């Protein structure tokens, strides 16, 4: 009664992958190819997502994939609030079936809004968020990286963050990734407000070819608060 999408859909698009996996990827809603096959992420953005998953180090056998909405919105429009609200309980039900789940990757602004009620995906991406005892990692939708390939490395980097967390190599809340000028500007603003800062710079080895040109691989900042 709440949602009419089930009348225009060809197939319900249900989760695929390993229900015992550690990582769940959540997209927006099925498109044309997903509607035909009854499986999420079968089209061009799905192909880019699988490529990014492989490059990030994630083992595809450790992943389940689904969407906020299980029926295709006509003309691939963004699902309405009501359509999302109809399906979110099913998403939550599925999440609760994943007993080994470590991190839920929210692909784009629709799952970010539907699940965490937050906007501005590009500000939130790459940072872990906790809600009701679950760990979420927002990142951009692969369709955004299809439109602008400059975003693709950020998608891979966020998936790698999910992988490192799921494999116990980093803890939720232990760091914030600074890999854009915007994020660097925000941290500089914040550093002006704290009294003490410690800086730990990580370099590559002198044998690495790029060492002369690009000596700093990363740094950790610790603030007094
Ligand atoms: N985009 C999505 O958000 N989900 C799919 O399954 C396919 C494209």
Short characterization:
The protein has helices at 5-8, 32-37, 44-56, 81-97, 109-116, 121-124, 142-147, 152-166, 181-191, and strands spanning 16-17, 23-27, 63-67, 103-107, 129-131, 134-139, 197-203, 216-223.
How is this fold's topology laid out?
Blueprint: H1 5-8, E1 16-17, E2 23-27, H2 32-37, H3 44-56, E3 63-67, H4 81-97, E4 103-107, H5 109-116, H6 121-124, E5 129-131, E6 134-139, H7 142-147, H8 152-166, H9 181-191, E7 197-203, E8 216-223
Parallel strand pairs: 2-3, 2-4, 4-6
Antiparallel strand pairs: 1-3, 5-6, 7-8
Helix pairs in contact: 3-8
The chain binds uracil (URA).
Uracil binds at residues 27-31, 34, 40-41, 43, 45-46, 67.
Q: What do you see in this structure?
A:
- There is one protein chain.
- This protein is an alpha/beta fold and 225 residues long.
- The chain has helices at residues 5-8, 32-37, 44-56, 81-97, 109-116, 121-124, 142-147, 152-166, 181-191, and strands spanning 16-17, 23-27, 63-67, 103-107, 129-131, 134-139, 197-203, 216-223.
- The strands form 2 sheets. A 6-stranded mixed sheet has the order 1-3-2-4-6-5. Strands 7-8 form a two-stranded antiparallel ribbon.
- A hairpin with a 2-residue loop joins β5 and β6 (134-139).
- α3 crosses α8 (152-166).
- 35% of the residues are buried.
- Bound molecules: uracil (URA).
Query: In which order are the strands of the major sheet placed?
Result: 1-3-2-4-6-5
Give the biggest beta sheet. Answer: 6 strands, mixed
Structural class: alpha/beta
> Overall mean pLDDT score?
90
Number of strands: 8
Q: Order of SSEs, N→C?
A: HEEHHEHEHHEEHHHEE
Please compute the radius of gyration using only Cα atoms: 19 Å
User: Cofactors and ligands present?
Assistant: uracil
Number of helices: 9
Distance between the termini: 50 Å
Classify the helix fraction into a percent range: 25-40%
Gross morphology? elongated
Low-confidence stretches: none
Oligomeric form:
single chain
Q: What share of residues are in beta strands? A: 15-25%
């Amino acid at each position: 009664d709440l949602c009419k999408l089930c009348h225009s859909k060809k197939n319900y698009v249900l989760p695929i992958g390993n229900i015992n996996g550690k990582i769940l990827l959540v997209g927006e809603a099925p498109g044309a190819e997903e509607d035909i096959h009854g499986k999420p992420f079968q089209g061009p953005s799905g192909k880019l997502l699988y490529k990014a998953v492989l490059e990030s180090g994630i083992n595809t056998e450790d992943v389940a994939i689904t969407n906020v909405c299980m029926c295709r919105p006509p003309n691939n429009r963004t699902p309405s609030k009501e359509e999302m609200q109809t399906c979110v309980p099913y998403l939550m039900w599925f999440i609760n079936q994943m007993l080994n789940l470590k991190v839920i990757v929210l692909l784009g602004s629709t799952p970010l809004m539907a699940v965490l009620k937050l906007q501005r995906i590009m500000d939130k991406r790459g940072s872990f968020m906790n809600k009701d005892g679950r760990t979420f990692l927002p990142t951009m939708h692969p369709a955004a990286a299809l439109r602008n390939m400059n975003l693709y490395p950020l998608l891979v980097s966020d998936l790698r963050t999910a992988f490192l967390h799921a494999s116990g190599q980093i803890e939720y809340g232990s760091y914030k990734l600074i890999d854009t000028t915007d994020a660097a500007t925000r941290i500089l603003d914040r550093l002006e407000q704290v009294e003490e800062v410690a800086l730990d710079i990580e370099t590559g080895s002198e044998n690495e070819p790029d060492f002369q040109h690009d000596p700093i691989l990363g740094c950790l900042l610790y603030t007094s608060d």
